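Suppose a colleague, Dr. K., hands you the sequence of a protein chain of 211 amino acids and asks what its three-dimensional shape might be. Before reaching for any lab equipment, you can write down a predicted structure in token form. Begin with the sequence itself:
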Amino acid sequence: MMDQEPEGRDRKVQAVALDPADLPEATGTQDRNLGIMLVKQAVEALWAPARMSNADRQEAVNAAVAALKGLAPTDALEGMMATQMVAIHNGAMECLRRAQLEGQSFEGRDQNLKHATKLLATYARHVEALDKHRGRGQQKITVEHVTVNAGGQAIVGNVGAGANSPRAYEPVKSPLALPDDPSPHAQIIDGAQFARAERLKKPIPVRRGGR
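The predicted structure, expressed as tokens, is then:
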């Protein structure tokens, strides 16, 4: 007894056109066999029922190749990541489409939305991994010139924005001058306390006409 073919599987081979000149730009590799395989994998991950016409199938292939080009892979690794991202995107959108079908049950809608959420989260992780591979995951700040005024302090090194990093805009306080310090720094005192002390001072008696 032969196994039955899954429902929706296209039993008739339908040919689609693919320009070999698109392979390097779409897959990031100059290897023709690898390029064809990656494009084929991206296309076969599309939802393409048997009733789809040749024209619609060709448009789907062209759209997949355009999506690969849009990700602009620069090597084989990025080409494989781009292929996965195109497949993940199409899978997520198909789940969202099925969730909105007329007459869809609550359970079917819920399952499709959950699958779409997982696929979209996976897609976001692929974007982060691709940015990291391309060196765009972190920002680097280079300080070329620093001016420090008298009494100030400068920090030389990497300054981050974390909780334990020094605050970039915190004013630098000058050290207070001690009474015997000959430096020109003015001593900072509380004006209210100074005025109160002046009022509490007792007048010095002045004697007149004798010692």
